[in-house]
């Protein structure tokens, strides 16, 4: 049985992410084992890794780095062995080189880019960006399999990632201007929205991740 390590580093959306992953896994013919863990040995051996995240970039990065051996274990699983990785919300943002929230904070640097405050050009499009919004500019990818280009996902954030290489952007969202909604490079992927709060579309994306073979 394949294992999915859902990283526990004190993130606020851990339990809702766990519940959604278990529901998505239960609909598959061969359901993987979802393991909530901060154990580096478990993470290093995992077949898939999910990194959730809620809150400020700097606080999440500090909490992640405070777990001894966790970054190295995640690197062993995802960068050395090529295990599929999914970052959710701030978990996606941590893939960037740096976050520019409350100063500059170094990220993982797995997908080059910066995380900066969303700027809206529409006074009716309020920041923080909260609520349902449709994906646009989607490129073909197994993670989005079976989803229409304009499928709606649930967002709640004030900062967004801009990849250095535009080819790393998997999908965008328009909220007073277009910004990154999802990224993908090789076996690494991340979504700014919350699939665990996005009902059927979010569960489909999580199921796609659980079967993704990059």
List keywords for this structure.
single chain, 214 residues, alpha/beta, Rossmann fold, 9-stranded mixed β-sheet, 4-stranded mixed β-sheet, 30% strand, globular
Order of helices and strands: EHEHEHHEHEEEEEEEEEH
Percent of residues in helical segments?
25-40%
Report the end-to-end length measured between terminal Cα atoms. 18 Å
Number of H/I helices: 6
Which runs of at least 5 residues are low in confidence (pLDDT < 50)? none
β-strand percent reads 25-35%
Average pLDDT score: 93
Q: Which CATH architecture?
A: 3-Layer(aba) Sandwich
CATH fold descriptor: Rossmann fold
SS content category: alpha/beta
Q: Give the C-level CATH assignment.
A: Alpha Beta
> For this structure, what is the CATH homologous superfamily?
Class I glutamine amidotransferase (GATase) domain
Strand sequence of the main sheet, in spatial order?
A: 2-1-3-4-13-12-11-8-9
Total count of domains: 1
Major beta sheet summary: 9 strands, mixed
Radius of gyration: 16 Å
Principal-axes geometry comes out as: globular
Number of separate strands: 13
Describe this structure in words.
With 214 residues, the chain is of the alpha/beta class. It has one domain (3-211): 3-Layer(aba) Sandwich (Rossmann fold). It is built from 6 helices and 13 strands. The chain has helices at 14-26, 40-45, 57-65, 70-80, 90-93, 199-211, and strands at 3-7, 33-37, 48-51, 85-88, 98-99, 105-106, 113-117, 129-136, 152-157, 159-163, 169-174, 178-185, 188-191. It has a 9-stranded mixed β-sheet, with helices on both faces. Strands 6-5-7-10 form a 4-stranded mixed β-sheet, with helices on one face. Helix 1 (14-26) crosses helix 6 (199-211). The longest helix is centred in the N-terminal third of the chain and has 13 residues, at 14-26. The radius of gyration is 16 Å and the shape is globular. The relative contact order is 0.17. The mean pLDDT is 93. Residues 16-210 form the Glutamine amidotransferase domain. Its EC number is 4.3.2.10, 3.5.1.2. InterPro entries: Class_I_gatase-like, GATASE, Imidazole-glycPsynth_HisH. Heterodimer of HisH and HisF.
């Amino acid at each position: 049985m394949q294992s999915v390590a859902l990283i526990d580093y004190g993130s606020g959306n851990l339990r809702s992410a766990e519940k959604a992953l278990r529901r998505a896994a239960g609909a598959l013919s061969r359901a993987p084992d979802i393991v909530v863990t901060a154990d580096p040995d478990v993470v290093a051996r995992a077949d898939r890794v999910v990194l959730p995240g809620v809150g400020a970039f700097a606080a999440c990065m500090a909490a992640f780095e405070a777990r001894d051996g966790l970054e190295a274990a995640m690197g062993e699983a995802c960068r050395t062995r090529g295990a599929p990785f999914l970052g959710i919300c701030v978990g996606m943002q941590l893939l960037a080189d740096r976050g520019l929230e409350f100063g500059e904070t170094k990220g993982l640097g797995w997908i080059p880019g910066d995380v900066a405050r969303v700027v809206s050009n529409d006074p009716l499009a309020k920041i923080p960006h909260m609520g349902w919004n449709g994906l646009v500019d989607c490129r073909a990818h197994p993670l989005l399999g079976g989803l229409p280009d304009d499928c709606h996902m649930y967002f709640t954030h004030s900062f967004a990632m801009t990849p250095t290489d535009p080819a790393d952007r998997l999908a965008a969202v328009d909220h007073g201007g277009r910004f990154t909604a999802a990224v993908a490079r090789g076996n690494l992927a991340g979504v700014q929205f919350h699939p665990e709060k996005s009902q059927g579309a979010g569960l489909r994306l999580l199921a796609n991740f659980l079967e993704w073979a990059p």
